[in-house]
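Loading example: each entry is read as two labelled lines plus one structure line.
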Amino acid sequence: MLSDEARLTERVLRHIAEIGKGECSITDASIAAERDESAQEILAGLLMLHEDLQYSQQRHSALLDELRGAIRVRDDFLSVASHELRTPITTLGLQIDGLFRMMRQQVPQTLQETLSRRLEITRRQIDRLAGLVGALIDVSRITSGRLQLSKQLADLVEVIRLVLERFGDDALRGGSALRFERQGPVWGNFDISRVDQVFTNLLSNAIRYGRGKPIVVGAVGVGENARFWVEDRGIGIPPEHLNRIFQQYERAAPSTSYAGLGLGLWISRQLVEAMGGTISVRSEVDAGSVFTVEIPRNG
Amino acid sequence: MTGNILVVDDDADLRETLQVLLDDSGYGVTAVANGKAALDKLRTGARPILILLDLMMPEMNGWQFLERARADEVLDAIPVVIMTARRKGTDLLPAPSRDILHKPFDTEKLLHTIALHAAAADPAL
């Protein structure tokens, strides 16, 4: 025969277990039926605890819904806004093309040099704007799972050579000499525009953070994989930031000193992983960084 | 390469830009602001060698225009180059006579794409 106290303890433990599962069989009537006043108080307290828990759980899930909604609104806005920006960029680009043409045909030779320089700068800024908008669109595609790859047979060496050709002037402006290490062609099924994008990102980082020192890039086939890398001798990355740099909106260099959205390496990692590959970095402060990408050739 | 191109875009600046650019390149250009105006022009004017079509437009958008054009044998035979910033919803559009220019595109790409389709559609060439 259990004592009243032992029965109450057993009952309290049972109710606590119930409450843990989000249920509670205590009612106002069952409290009133209890003879002992302190037992009544304990049961009433448990009921209140249960109700508070229920309330905070509802509140929690309502807040979560709200948060998810707000993120969806943000992502939708990002998608619409970045697409919207592409039309004025198109018009601007076509106008600059037209001005170049007019200049060559109608402007006296004496003025051409200055004018051409100004148009070049405008053209470069439009390209930069287009690049930034492209990054926003990529973020929106990646976060909503709409990233699609389209692969074709290509030589990685050729893809990289074309980027280097495009980058010649930029590297010179940054003062860095470019060297390309390769042996022979590296054939594979690649999404050319995405490989181009990843390599472009790594190379523009190397130029930006390379302090005008020489930059070495390379491409090689490693069994089933294709590997390419970009090596600079610039500011380098402190070890405590190495994991952070591939994350969204993160950057190791202070945004007060170096321009950028903090999206390039995150987008690159997402693209490389979507290709079934890996991206990695080795770096030493004041000595430079090497970024290496390895992707399957027949992925 | 000559012939008339119908430009359909609600953005007045882009319309004018394309008009000047294509005109300089030896094409005749008619420019309208939406799909409905394009249908009106096609009913009354001469048959263009190509239609340069925006997708998002008020009154009648590009998708609606294409639907109407598809139902008409004469219109359906005119090559259409779609100008769009989106990739979503454009996958169902390409037919042999249709192509997509993703914004932003440059003059070279524009003229190349136009020449490709205009030549293919011109029996005189």
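Chain B touches chain A through 20 residues (CB under 8 Å).
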